[in-house]
Please model this.
Amino acid sequence: MTAEARTLLDRSRILQAVRRFFIERGYVEVETPVRISQPALETHIDAEPSGAMYLRTSPELHMKRLLARGLGRIFQIGPCFRKGERGDRHSPEFTMLEWYRAGADYLDMLAETKALFGFVLSEVRGRVSAPYQGVMVDFGPVWDCLKVSECFLWNAGWDPVERFDADRFFEDLVTKVEPSFVPSRPTVLIDFPAQAAAFARLKSADPRVAERWELYAGGMEIANAFSELTDAGEYRKRFAAAAAERAAAGREAYAMDEDFLREIDGRLPPAGGVALGMDRLVMLLCDECSIERVRAFG
Amino acid sequence: MYSASDLRKGLRIEIDGAPYLITEFSFVKPGKGQAMYNCKLKNLITGATIARTFRDNARIDEPKLESKKMRFSYENGDSLVFLDEEYNEIALSAQIFGEKRFFLAEDMEVTVLFHNGRPIDITLPTFVEKEIVHTEPGVRGDTATNVLKPAQIPGGYTLQVPLFVNTGDIVRIDTRTGEYVDRVHKK
Model:
């Protein structure tokens, strides 16, 4: 068997294990449109046009509409597209796993993510550790969980929750904070500044902080999770803020997704959601350093 | 001007008036964040390596670089005299060539890289042949293949050669590394 065939076989086994995990927990597998009329408004994500429409950058908004229609546990594995993103860990076409659970918050989703890793590793590798680029990564139950505030103070000398600076935030995240993570176990960066909330709910006890986490393993960002924002008015405000930032940066303008706002208004239950890069999960489990090598025709 | 999306390995850019070569390049994009381009850069004048991260809205200067083919004519103290394609004599400081000056030979065609009219690098043919003017005789019986000894070529440059190489032999040298390749003629 060639190395490529072996990787694709592993990829298939990982996908099957992921599906089994969710089905056993009562999740419904869903498929939402890939070709959509307007992409989710995010400052730094550009969509690939498809005729007069766009290819989705994530299934997030449609999956939330299904939550609003009463499906309380849903997951989806499918293609997403992001214009101009190409590198060792980025491909303009990639496979995303997203799941949403009504009644859960971001900490519940973290516990479930740990369970997912434990299950998939045991199924595919027969143990909960895997070598990645020369380091044995232990996915056992102990993950480093670091608050953004503390991690930035310690490694970059400033606290983005006290005073946010968008340019410095992302640059220091990549050059100072991420390199400080211990490579031999997963790291969860948690409680992001409100300005980097994306579509996460703010903490009621401290609205400067958003209920959002990012999972890193093997030096890669693997997953992003929120306690989901439920208020349509607040979504509208965040879309508008992203639209203004896009305009200021000279990026293409996207319309507000009125269908989404109308459908979730007053109907979206409190929920947790996670988006996980399937290709990166396969990279991690197959010890591959390039995304191209884990995708057929990558 | 380059924009950040033009950046790639092997591209030459300018920062604060100095020309740099991108030797390593990676696209990074933190979740929900701005795309960034992590580069390792080699200063084409000093050879020093630096790391630089460019944001996706960065504008990067293009260096004014010009390559000229020339033939080596003669050495005159600290300067090396070349003939360009119009047979103009051009004297360049030997200092910028480092050890490569020892691999020159009369009428050898080289490519000189100029930045804003200032010569900054020279590319020689990959392999040159030089006579060994001095090396100690190898000790008979010591046949381990990885054993090397110093040997000198004209001009005083010393390189490591296998024990079987003797004074008067002609050897081939890789001009990119300055290292011995093989023996082409036995005295």
Residues 90 and 147 of chain A are 26 Å apart (CA to CA). Chain A touches chain B at residues 42-45, 84-90, 166-167, 169-171, 173-175, 178, 196, 198, 214, 221, 224, 249 (CB under 8 Å).
